[in-house]
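Hey, quick one: can you model this chain's 3D structure?
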Amino acid sequence: MNMHPRSSQVLAPQNLITLGNLACGVGAILLCIVGIVENNPDKLYQAALWLVLAEFLDGVDGKIARLTGTASPLGAQLDSLADAVTFGVAPGVLAFSMWHMFSTTFALNLHPRLLMVAPVVYSACAVLRLARFNVDHEEDDLQQENVRFVGLPSPGAAGMPISMALLYFGIADIKFFDVSETTILFVREWLLYSMPFILIVMGVLMVSRVPFPHFFAWMTRSKKPVATLAKFIFMFGFMFLEPEACLFIFSFCYTLVPILTQFLPSRRSN
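Sure thing. Here's the predicted structure for all 270 residues.
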């Protein structure tokens, strides 16, 4: 039986993966709500893990589309809509929930309007960035992979609040070196206090014109299989040792390094 072309596009493997990305984002939001209602910190940790899974799914759906030759405008639009929820809304909800649950532990005090404005600004910038990307790349060949973005991509921006939430929970379990109780409390307090400001900074970077690399493209585009394998071994090796700390370091470096390269003499001369 022949299926309508649009039906076959919807059921394409990469689109199902994209819907999995969306499901992770919605699930993370619901877990945050349940965590606040039940005063259960474990739910917030689970929400952050669901968003990490969404990051992985977002990285592979485009790869699968190009490998199978099934990339389509429908898939591209679906990807943007899923990203708007998963990486545009859920990270702000997670950051707000983390502050709401743990700020009293450290007697932190920020303007209540800032706590509302920061997630809104972040989400608005994420949606604007996705819309700009769709307009700028409307005529692009969908079979060609983007190796560079103008502005911080929304999954990269989401990586900071997600990894900060995971580090909040994981800092006490670091085994690679001794972490004193004083250091644990200091790091947790710093993470909570800076979350609203990080959301605003990530929002500004998303709508900026700073070029950022495509992380998964950089990991896999090498023509030398040994080099590609070495990258994955290095990344997953560190992730296996201290996953929460490594995720935060990777997210921080991915955000900071492209900004610093803008100040190199070669870039300024161009």
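One thing worth noting: The CA atoms of residues 66 and 144 lie 8 Å apart.
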